[in-house]
Structures
1.
Amino acid sequence: MPAQLLSQPNPPPDPSHIPDSILSLRVDVPKNVLSSNELDSIRRFRRAADYIAAAMIFLKSNTLVEEPIKPDDIKHRLLGHWGTCPGLVLVYAHLNAIITRTNLNSLLVVGPGHGAPAILACLWLENSLATFWPKYTRDRQGLSALIRGFSVPGGFPSHINAETPGSIHEGGELGYALSVSFGAVMDKPDLVVCCVVGDGEAESGPTATAWHAYKYIDPAESGAVLPIVHVNGFKISERTIYGCMDDKELTALFVGYGYQPRFVEELNDIDQDLASSMQWALDEIHKIQKAARSGNPIVKPRWPVLILRTPKGWSTIKSLHGEYIEGSFRSHQVPLPEAKNDPEERKMLQAWLESYKPSEVLPNGEPSEEVLSIIPKEDKLKLGQKKEAYAAYEPIDVPAWIDHGVKKGTQESCMKVVGKFLNLVTHSNPTSFRIFSPDELVSNKLDAVLEDADSGRNFQWDPASRAKGGRVIEILSEHTCQGMLQGYTLTGRTGLFPSYEAFLGIVHTMMVQYSKFVKMAHETTWRQPVGSLNYLETSTWARQEHNGFSHQNPAFIGAVLDLKPSLARVYLPPDANCFLSTVAHCLRAKDYVNLMVGSKQPTPVWLSPEEADRHCIAGASIWKFASTDDGLEPDVVLVGIGVEVTFEVIAAAALLRKLVPQLRVRVVNVTDLMILGPQGSHPHALEDTDWDALFTGDGESDGKGRRYIHFNYHGYPVELKGLLFGRQGLERVTIEGS
């Protein structure tokens, strides 16, 4: 069966065997929020936005269909996803209306990121596109530019990304919208993030766990997330799980998660239904927050969730060539794929677009007064112009680490020392720094951050950590930690993600998607810097005394190395003082993906705090104390990159001095991996002259003969080979690694 067989459009789920009594736990509300004028304005806004979204997929000219559509009016290649657009427009229109009515401080996070036409259409209507992209003025010329340029070079892509005003979530990979939303509201008590979760996305593992994230939200100190599950029933070619669940099953599911579910599914009165439901949800949020902020928190509050049932591709053509379109998977992308070449499809396209009556809602290519009436009057309230989404970064107060360094020549756990420092960071930044960890802080010997209640855990369902202002989120889901970290970071704060080395790879693709967002943000003129995404990787492969092979995998280093050079930073500090210096630097840095790798076990402190500071600034240095004659005129260079492997290098150098005293050995430690690439390949890459000074020249130009270089590397050798490629004299290099 190549695709889903359908006996009817928008097929209902089979009834379940759950007792009807479960339905008493779903919420019913009176549908009387909107006045007749508001209702008319919302419907007109929806018609205008639906029209623009559909036109973006198909048209390159005749953008207001003021004459019959000709083949030349249609784009050569039709790209975009229509199926989710009507639902997204519906949500956007009602969020606008409630913001206008209540001055709600809100962001919109869109899980179905492939619905970019819907969001771009709404942004154009509220004049947020023109604010950041002047060519998309709110007039005929700007509208034509938007429609004509969608999904072609120079225009907006088919997925939401950093070029989309108001967005804090890369729209390509599904599963992370909910956790990003929860991270965004932390420490922002007045912010409500409306998060649309598609029913396809709802099938993903990360989304399934993220429903628990509200259990880490203290309503006294943080804002709230209003999840809207958009159940339109279909993915690309098959029905969704949620679409095959009846109201009893979905009620049981969300009540079990701890939510109050409200179904929005009365299609004939969908606007009153959704408006009343959103107002109820906002009232519930305010009730929970008021109780917490008055000192009488509700224990285990049941937060609202809206379950929105609308047909897939709502308002498009009903059928084509005997197949259902609206209410089926065939509306997921382009409902009329041959409109350019098939006169019958072109005629249907004309009728479809004209059904929105663009001359009424977009007279002469501009929104009508009725459409504009539900858009917030103040720019700062518009969803596309929220500073939380593009200009909210505030640097944190990082204590002077050097005052907390440890004595040279002792044995110290890097993580224990760093844990004490991070405890200071949390106290210095009680509303702008958090640690997101998959239940590994104690194991990773970072438990000093848990010593004080106001810097410890923030698990609201545990009486021991409830309402204590803790800065630590521990949940055994790397995906949820990553999503929360992204939302927290992109809305202006700073976070840290400590993890076992072997399991950071779980969030590899999430990290890549985030880096794409930041890359595109750099290419805009209006997105301001954000804090860096900071990973602290320990419990490394080199010291797995009681776990073994299953816990040995340093591959996340390679994942970060594959990012754009402007973003990627990888550090392998060799001792506790170097790690302190590195952590302090990364917490101050902006717009990077920082990976710090080190040991949790006690290891030698090779450098004093002052020496460590100089070493980390340089990125690498000759360790004279471990070299022959301070490393002058070496016959061989031994390079350590990582904690335990550096210990091996120093031991090997000592052994060589004993066994082969005539061999002159230079020991080099590299703490900043990015210095090793060819000159110009990375902002940190050493100039050729500095490379030669550190690792020696090729032996021909200076007449001193070939000097071999041996790298003892913490990660996989293939990573280092790729990084070094392009340097001269690599035939004298050997590498050992994990």
2.
Amino acid sequence: MSLSFEGRVVLVTGAGGGLGREYALAFAERGASVIVNDLGVDTKGGGKSSAAADKVVEEIRVKGGKAVANYDSVEDGEKLIQSALDAFGRIDVVVNNAGILRDRSFARTSDLDWDLIHRIHLRGSFLVTRAAWNHMKDQKFGRIIMTASAAGIYGNFGQANYSAAKLGLLGLANTLAIEGRKYNIHCNTIAPVAGSRLTETVMPPDLVASLKPEYVAPMVLWLCHEQCQENGGLFEVGAGWIGKLRWERSQGHTVREKNQPMTPEAVRDQWDKVCDFTDATKPSTVQESLQSIVSVLSRVESEGEVDANPTAAAASASGINPTEAVGQKLPPTTFSFNHTQCILYALGVGMSTKDPDHLRFLYEGHPDFGCLPTFGVIPSQAAMMDGGLSSIPGLNIDFTQVLHGEQYLELYKPLPTSGELTSEATIADVLDKGSGAVILLDVNTYSGSELVCYNQFSVFVVGAGGFGGRRTSEKAKAPLPPPKRAPDAVVIDSTTRDQAALYRLSGDWNPLHIDPSFAAMGGFKAPILHGLCSFGFAARHVLTQFADNDPSRFKAIKVRFVKPVMPGQSLQTEMWKEGNRIHIQCKVKETDAIVLAGAYVDLHSTSEDSPENLTQGGGLQSELVFAEIGRRIKDSGSELVKKVNAVFGWEITKDSKNAAQWTIDLKNGSGSLHTGPYSGKADVTFTVSDEDFMEVVQGKVNPQKAFFSGKLKVRGNIMLSQKLEVILKDYAKL
């Protein structure tokens, strides 16, 4: 579905040429009413003319668009916004693009050089945005773009004035993002690289010509659309490439003790540790930035001596130490079962003989008898239920404060209906959320030596935060918001009064779900339904609506648990289909309270698409290669993870169209192979045709030649391509 700006009013400053002109034309083409602002000055701020703005307005009107010109300086911000109100009655989007240059080496920069740059870039953006702000607040919608520069981010010789103003815009944008959030006003910053009057003074002519403004405008339009929820971001963009930037900070080192002076010699002696970016943190708020400093002060006053590492100090105080805990393995658990457990689970998540389609999961004599895919959480939960976390060093936590926050499950083959499964659990990461700690527990479940499924439990420990750890983790399987449109399907299913009593027989014996007195101690009026029971209901609904009730179509599910459900309430599952990914949101029908959010189910297109059923008849030769890689990962995954430690994405094309997507995860657990959309993030992604892929892996074409000829495209950490030989040559014996 294309992005429309019908009904939106957009102001673009400096829109008489270059990037601004391209923004104005692009917004108008998609239905926006546009105020084309341009003072008509030269690149140094001299002169004045209405011709530039008038020409762009005429271009828009000739194409049937709506636009008016404005010739005021951005220092007259109120006049610019009034033009929008007079012409169109509102203001929705402000793109602060106007700018000039007065490049001088620092020693030669005059007061005028400094002041004029700041007046146009920083003060001008402030004045225009301030004039629009209250209008955006009143209408509960606004999108603002600030234009920074690589010179502001990194510095550039001869541009001290320009660099200072451009980085000042980033600080302004970050604060506006915070203040505007509750009013649905989002503010983002871009550092564009494009050919314009400004960049032609610092770039070679041929480069200016190739860096076209139309390679930047789509990014600006997306950030300004109502569907886009990005806020407070900083992006470099140019030539069709977009990258997001963030701050990174070393763990740091404390160089003083109580009642002892802090000396420059102490700083010198610990300088290498101060600058060591091993296990660097990525603070994103002032509060996160101050955590380490506050923890140091607390330790100084309470114990008289400061630990060298403030994170470790805070960890000791909170009972959580990520350095000790992460990577620790829990004792393996074994789960023996037969068809009885499979049927009991199906009943526990709401299946009934009243529905003929449910019989295949309820009757062991059915010709298609099988196990519900979400039964995959049951063998793995023993790692949580059997007290394994209490044995982990660095996790001294109060287990009465433990909540199940999120769950991810991925199947590598359909679950058996009987047998013995072994689960191996590892502490993948421990995160500091301030009010609590999040423990990421990765669990791989095997049938013999064959990997059957992978679970990631996200456990929130109330009150265990503040130990100075990282707030986010790339290892976490992230929840995703549903599309901004009406759901494609809605299913309403009633739970019974005894739903929790029935579900607990599958192994979750927590008395919170059965004992009224225990539930009362937790603040509930009555026992609540298991979150994983709602999880099972929602997955069933997706299978019914989009997979013909075929469990072999199921690939993965991710949910975030939001609020409890009371047994007897009705669950309403809303579903949005986006390719093979079904976004879901689950509510209590009676209260409209969301209980599962950020959720999705990934499906195989057909049963033949699953890794278990790849054949040469699928039309892609590369399928055989990935099938072999998958088998090798199952046999030697742990060894490969040690050698490679990366996630590789593959986009295979045929006849210039995307034909298949594969992800080789050799970073997490014992390694895994995924087909279709991948919920995590690849370190490097390769795009290549099926034919060229086979030429490369068979050694007929040198990968470097394929890259430089354009046959093999790479994005991400290109240096990791050196490790491909380990995967393709040593382990995919063709």
3.
Amino acid sequence: MKGLKTDLDLQQYSFINQMCYERALHWYAKYFPYLVLIHTLVFMLCSNFWFKFPGSSSKIEHFISILGKCFDSPWTTRALSEVSGEDSEEKDNRKNNMSRSNTTQSGPEGSLVTSQSLKSIPEKFVVDKSTAGALDKKEGEQAKALFEKVKKFRLHVEEGDILYAMYVRQMVLKVIKFLIIVAYNSALVSKVQFTVDCDVDIQDMTGYKNFSCNHTMAHLFSKLSFCYLCFVSIYGLTCLYTLYWLFYRSLREYSFEYVRQETGIDDIPDVKNDFAFMLHMIDQYDPLYSKRFAVFLSEVSENKLKQLNLNNEWTPDKLRQKLQTNAHNRLELPLIMLSGLPDTVFEITELQSLKLEIIKNVMIPATIAQLDNLQELSLHQCSVKIHSAALSFLKENLKVLSVKFDDMRELPPWMYGLRNLEELYLVGSLSHDISRNVTLESLRDLKSLKILSIKSNVSKIPQAVVDVSSHLQKMCIHNDGTKLVMLNNLKKMTNLTELELVHCDLERIPHAVFSLLSLQELDLKENNLKSIEEIVSFQHLRKLTVLKLWHNSIAYIPEHIKKLTSLERLSFSHNKIEVLPSHLFLCNKIRYLDLSYNDIRFIPPEIGVLQSLQYFSITCNKVESLPDELYFCKKLKTLKIGKNSLSVLSPKIGNLQFLSYLDVKGNHFEILPPELGDCRALKRAGLVVEDALFETLPSDVREQMKTE
């Protein structure tokens, strides 16, 4: 030790120590521990802020939760095993798609950057189908819920890049912090010295001005500062590498190209923004997580799951309970508002007609070939895709196709190739331009088409109909009130036997109709016909047997109708006819005559000429009496005279031995003739009458009618 011996008091030494600590000791040596603590807290804050900030932490926690469930879900293994069992056609298609994808990648646009970690796992991720056990109902519902969660999560997370931006910013902040720490620590570490010269003005108190003090923690702080610089340097280099990783690769885009190749699931979409960033991050831990997670991004995988759940719900026995006979007398299975088409349908081999209504994304598989008896298919508001083998089967077997659509795009393009199709029913809205669209012109390939029904809003007959006119036998156009014009194309349909033009706002009977020499039935329901003077031209249609002019505004029937001697069914119901011409009954082949809902007051006695009459209706008119000649029509089976002004029913009604249906309700009858008992075919169920009026019949007649 050097210097003067002072023999100062202990309190004076203590004061000198404090003064030297405050005045002479360098601030770095003085506050080094606090600086280390503050820097450490800043680093911790930068590293963990995104785990605490609500906008980012919620996404991370939700992602980790979903990721774990997807990884452990039994459906992941099952889905991959389903892919391994796909048919050869799908494999070929996938190979072609992959080759096209590779061509696209080499183009000038480039593609999304592929994760390098995925390249390090070349093994084929396919599971033996025998090892993938069937999912029970609970597991299927859980997997279904996972698909919905992944959809919502992706929709929400792909909207922004807050996670990526926050991670980049905190990493930049840490690098800047690292550079600052290294810079000033390297410069100031030499300031930590054991001996400190202290020059303080305390001579009055101690008698001395200059002191030489020692910093007892200097040696320790010096060593710690070097260690601290080493640790910070290592941490800083790690941050620099991370920053390089962030900017060198496009972490806001994530491609599943290698997953698609390895798993065989081709429709896994590439993702972007925060969703892509989190997948890149999880790849740094284990790329297998992304692979298994990708299964829940695939619509193909989701559809397979839906199909599996659908098959479990709709067993063959349950489907057989829904079987019914349709209007075409075929055994039909109606399926309405399902999530898809159950595969179990194709186990019901006795099925003749399949009706699908409001079912989206229907896929008709090759197994439809098991339905040997299938002849009819109805698609109501369904978007349908079909397997090539299934299309081949339908081309050979399908006879009737009915399509109801809201949009033209719902019309299946494959329907134009059904060469054995005999009946086609189209129901949906068509604009005037679309009615001439070339998509309908391909109907010319339907060489066996005999019946075509279009329920729409066409303003003219589509050209496609003319293309099949050579073999078309029945055509129905049901409009929504749109006026149908330009009917000259009808003349080309020389083989047409039945024609329906309903609600087409026709004011006259189209002249083109008179050229259809093979026509047997004509229905002009719900038009705006007021005069039918041109009906005389029907005499050239020797085969015409059915004429329906119902639901119009016809005021009278011209006498020319007598020339239609081939008519067997005639309907003038729901018009404004007041007088029946006697010439009408010269059409002596009429078996069916409907004059209901008019203003008729009198029935001519010439009606007795109609010896073939089996059905006669004058319901809801103003008839006050019936001619006795009516009862000469002894083949009459149905007689509807309800809602008129009749007061007496003739006893001659007993002459109608074949009468099985009689409607007399809504008249002014006080009593029914007991001769009704002579109508042996008439039963109580076929007699429409007020209960009180029925009681006026003799008891034996009532009992006779009540017996089956």
4.
Amino acid sequence: MSRRVRRKVARRGKEKVVLPSYPEVEDEVIGSEKNEVVDWTSLPDDTVIQLMSCLNYRDRASLSSTCRTWRALGASPCLWSSLDLRAHKCDIAMAASLASRCMNLQKLRFRGAESADSIIHLQARNLRELSGDYCRKITDATLSVIVARHEALESLQLGPDFCERITSDAVKAIALCCPKLKKLRLSGIRDICGDAINALAKLCPNLTDIGFLDCLNVDEVALGNVLSVRFLSVAGTSNMKWGVVSQVWHKLPKLVGLDVSRTDVGPITISRLLTSSKSLKVLCALNCPVLEEENNISAVKSKGKLLLALFTDIFKALASLFAETTKNEKNVFLDWRNSKNKDKNLNEIMTWLEWILSHILLRTAESNPQGLDDFWLKQGAGLLLSLMQSTQEDVQERAATGLATFVVINDENASIDCGRAEAVMKDGGIRLLLDLAKSWREGLQSEAAKAIANLSVNAKVAKAVAEEGGINILAVLARSMNRLVAEEAAGGLWNLSVGEEHKGAIADAGGVKALVDLIFKWSSGGDGVLERAAGALANLAADDKCSMEVALAGGVHALVMLARSCKFEGVQEQAARALANLAAHGDSNSNNSAVGQEAGALEALVQLTRSPHEGVRQEAAGALWNLSFDDRNREAIAAAGGVEALVVLAQSCSNASPGLQERAAGALWGLSVSEANCIAIGREGGVAPLIALARSEAEVQRWRDLWLPWHWHTCSMAEWMNLR
């Protein structure tokens, strides 16, 4: 759903910036207390519970396991009022083990169909709020059972990905089983019929917030029967009959906020709703192409109501809701959150607007429509930064994901818009993202790290991230037990490691060891985290000092393990590139021979030259080229079938990229230093393809450069994808 940026080549520089270390916990020892023994079990129960409330679930469980007293405190109902299972594989057995602690569970977040099937085994009869994502495989039967077991539900949200297997039957079940329902937001349902909506209107008298987002068909007339609704969103929904909408919805007696963003609504419907509805105060119509046509803008009549569209000043419009005008309109959300005298109705409007705007902006960033550069620079970036400071965790996450996504302007080569990235930096976004990354909530950590990684493609932003202590924060997150957090942190270190000035700082922050440990920790089932960890290590290995750090941390063994056993092409490429860079320092350290002597290394690289993926073949040939500068490696490569493999590669790459041609020829040249290998190359038919490759190059200098080892090949995630 969201984009990650993968970068590539950077030049070798001279300076290194070594940042100070900022540990997470700083011990203060004062005077006579220096030698005293601290008895943690003597802490008051309230203090221990407060400490536990600041930990994630995994750390809380670890702390609870230290003694009986803390185990009992760890089961306190106040610590289990909410539960976020998105980062965990929640099957029936896990749910059953948690059941004894979930009697008073009020709020639950989950991910995927397997977790959904397990929810009923938590036995959380008092559950009030349920939110799920990655819901494509959830069926009517599963959802019906969930709502039947949780009749006290007041809020149900499924999305933003499409609920493809949920139908109107499940919506009817929700109406029948959840009479206390106040909020219902569902995404991507094919059809929501009138009977289902009428059931909600009849059986859920407290239903005030409805969101049917990105649906295919919704019964407009039936929605006009939900007289209790105050906030309604049909953003992204297709096939809306706007004539019916304009005739029916303005009669809803309590409707305060309406969202029709990302639809084909026109100016006539908008004007009719704004002028005819007595209760409507805010209408969101962002990214509506028909409405935004130049000839239609002047036709919109708002009659003093608030219209939020791409052609309006959103911050100014929001500021107009408040009697006291804010000094800086861009601070309208912050001023509202800090306001002591809050109006209940206005508070509900602003809370709804935060959720709606975060959803709209993320969806718009994902679709990446043309012509929005001006909006993103003048309003979009500022809105996302404001929403990142929301008290609603899901709003914060979507805003961070939106920042990670909107800077990406081309999915094919994963390039970013420097203007957008620098706009985030200038508005204080780096500090905000780093603060989110330090949150104990792993969902926020993951999305913030992803945004930092993408933004760091820009050299100026990367420098700001480093100066703000971001390298230390990412190195800490790379040690997370949560794979998603570790993966995004590794991506951030990959992008930052492009800059020569950041390599030393990453090593000093413990980043090298953290990246190597990631490979061992997620050696199976974590292709994304493995590719990012290997890519970052490949960049770091281009530096002489850092290459020694990689070797000392066990990086050679880890990378060879990936080259031998991982089947994912991206991981294979990065592992081979990292081994090539480690072997490029033959004149200054022993890594070249260390790679060659690692069990299975040469055989794995020879095998990778036969890969169906050109990028893998190229990196493997480059690694063999560098390794061939060591006498023992040269003979061992030949013994492992390297001559035959490289000749076949040279024969097959006449139409391949110059990079592959160069590395194939270079590897054969490196082996040809040995007389026995020269004979073997000739016997295998290697002379003819080498002559053909030489003739294909117009510049003689290029082939003079060929006789130098392929050296210090540094790249970042975006540039890597761009060159593949």
